[in-house]
Amino acid sequence: MRGRLFPEGRFMRFLSRANPYHSGPVSDHFDGRRFFNPDGHGPGGLGALLRWRFKHKRAQWPDHFPGLPTDRPPARVSGGAARLSFVGHASFLLQTGGLNILLDPLWSERCSPFDNVGPKRRNAPGIAFDDLPAIDVVCVSHSHYDHMDASTLKRLHARFSPRFLTPLGNDALIRGFCPSAKVEAHDWLARVPLNGDVALTFEPTHHWGARGVFDRSMTLWASFAFETPAGFIYYVGDSGFFGGANYRAARQRHGPAKLAVLPIGAYAPRFFMAPQHQDPDEAVRAARFLEAELSIGSHWGTFQLTDEPIDEPPARLSAALARWSVAPERFIAGRPGLAVSLPHAIDAPLPEPLAATPETTARAVHETGEEASD
User: Fold this and answer.
1) Contact 203, 223 (CB under 8 A)
2) CA neighbours closer than 13 Å in the CB half-sphere of residue 314
3) Which of 48, 122, 251, 356 falls between 20 and 30 A from 227, CA-CA?
4) What is the per-residue pLDDT across 165-223, written as a single tens digit (0 to 9) for each?
């Protein structure tokens, strides 16, 4: 067993209704016990979960869905360049400013608290673990098992002893896996220098976190905005669209994105998933709100978390690109092994900035007519 539904050593604190991971002042997204999405939505309740499980049919995924040939990244990337390699699902290696940064790393065969039960990997990691360069920084966006993998974090700590950066409360979890790890936890909008050339800002995102059955939203979630020699790079591990508000705010704070990583999968059924997982149409609008020069679609095709067919996200992405006048060269459905570099010349026009209107901020509705319920 790789984890516990009752986090180790913390059961009595759950019974006392204390937050076992974080204590701090009340804020616009923390009520003293749980974090929340300001003016937004929390995770679905038991009734909605049962409706999903008993009234909706899950598509059958193939056992194998191969990615691209595995990438062999260089030792370092310096100067005015950046390189991003897709490991799979939400895992990426970002190389820039002489730093090697892993984002939501996951090399395990399952994203689950258990060794033999739970979503199973459908393709090999896009970088073999033994081909990783020396890792300086590991960023973990939130506590869900498909983003915070204890086994992988232990392997990384043992081999590289990197600096771990994560939102509030998640530091306690990582220290539980790796007691001697160098872990820092930060709140939304904290700006953290990584070296003289690269800095990271913890951006608000519309999601939630949990490791067990009683700790929902007791750890914070975030997206990552990187200031790099190659420009602004924006990474989203998981997020609902939330009318695009967080994307517009990030654009206002950091300027147009040179590169954006945006999830495009795990969105069905919409009534249950829409508040926390955007779909491809919403992801394209997110890219336009960010004025992203290049976007990579993630969070699809590796672990089956939801109901849509394995190959549906790129098909929906293609339709959304046509609908929102974005050239296909500017938004790629990522496959494990994909690597892109900045500067990156794209022979396609960059669309005009997207204004916030009732149409551009609306939740996506799929062909079934089933819109997400609030």
Assistant:
1) yes
2) 10
3) 356
4) 999 999 999 999 999 999 999 999 999 999 999 999 999 999 999 998 889 999 999 99
